[in-house]
C-alpha cells in the first residue's frame, strides 16, 4: 500500500463519519446553522481516534477514543462561541460515530453463548474471560467518550456561551498572569535590604 491509498482510505472514512454525525444531528434537532460544525467535529474526532490507533497507540482504543472526544469537546467550545449555541449541541452527535458498537455486539453475543452453548470447563472459562474483557472495554470506551466531551467544558467552565467570548477569556488570563508578575516584581523592589 502506498501513501495515496492510505490517504484516500482515511479521507473516505472521515467523509462518512462526518455524514453519520450530521445524520444524528438531524435526529436530535440540531439547529441548521450548526449542522456543518457537527459534521466537521465528527470527522475530526473520528480521524484523530483512527490516526492515533493506527500509528502512535495501536491497541489503545480507550485512550484514543478519549483523545478524539477531547478534541471534539475542545473545538465545540470554540465553535459554540462563534455560532452562539451550547457546546453539547455539537458534541453528542459528533461522538456517536465513536461509540463501540462492534465491541458491544460481541459482548452481547458472548453472553448469549455462555447461557445457551454447553462447552467444557476450560472453554467456558476462556469464554467468560473474553466476555468480561469485551464488557469492560465497551464500558470504558463509552465512559471515556463522555469524559472526553465534558472535560474541556469543565476546564473552561463554559456550560453556556452566553455573554462569553473565547478571545476575551484568553486576553483576561494573559493580563492576569502579567499583572501577577508585575506585582511580584514591585514587591521585590520595595523590600528593605
Automatic annotation (TrEMBL):
It comes from the Bacteria. This is Threonine/serine exporter family protein. Residues 14-153 form the Threonine/Serine exporter ThrE domain. Keywords: Cell inner membrane, Cell membrane, Membrane, Transmembrane, Transmembrane helix. It is a multi-pass membrane protein. It is found in: Cell membrane. The chain crosses the membrane at residues 6-28, 35-55, 61-80, 87-105, 134-156. Belongs to the ThrE exporter (TC 2.A.79) family. The keyword Transmembrane applies. It holds the Pfam family ThrE_2.
